[in-house]
Task: structure prediction
Amino acid sequence: MNLNMKSMLDAGVHFGHQKERWNPKMKNFVYTSRGGIHIIDLQKTLAKAKDALAFVENMAANGERMIFVGTKKQAEETIQEAANKCGQYYVTKRWLGGTLTNFVTIKQSIDRLKKIDQMREKGELEYFSKKERSSMEKEYEKLNEYLQGIREMKEPAGLLFVVDITKEHIAVQEAKKLGIKVVGLCDTNSDPSIIDYPIPANDDAIRSIKLFSDLVADAYLAGAKKYEQKAREVTDKQSDVEKEQKEAPPQKTRGGRGAPAKTQQQPSGPNVVKAAKGRKLVAAGTADDIEILAEVEQEVKTDEPADKE
Result:
């Protein structure tokens, strides 16, 4: 879907609130007033929207998850459709306090919802009394109403798209506290400075909400494709490296191409040992015989007369 002046005019994006309900911080985005109603400058809306959509695409390309938030009656169906379109989370009934800042508690409620859901599928609720079944059914309906859109969320998302930042001020405050980026529609009664990427636009008209919700979903899908492509390239590269390692020839050694390295050979024959002080080196195993002969020779020399000559 392309964003242009005609599509915004057709969707009524330029209609703001009554003059007495405006927020002075929206002054830069107001073009004029007509019939006591402020008219939003669509040229500035176009520029801001392009920046916001580029940011959403970049966040998706980095693998960040997003929550679509719109609890207005006219936004519920549109927000849910946009979130399902790009496979992201959504909140359309009521933003539960602590959804981001106290996610541990919210996660416990999500686990409870899943447990009751499993019990219903397996027919285990039949083992409870009628009163207990009624109580659990009511609990399930309430949990499902508020948590259906985030039941698969394992950790707080990295990005929020908010339809009405004034109405959803709790969600915006929680996101700001955790450093989570917020993209949102800002009507003339809003304070655009409280979010990261404000889009000056009518946040009451169904067509205006649908226009930007679909654009955000498309931008996220475009970024998600880039993320999948990068992940695929990394996987392919790892596979190529492993394949090269398996097919690599054996490493050369000093003994020649593919030959095992030479090992120091032990000398053959008997080990040479030192017999005793003043004696020659002799082969192991013959030392006793040689020592005996040497001692006999020494005794013979001692027994010879000293005057023999």
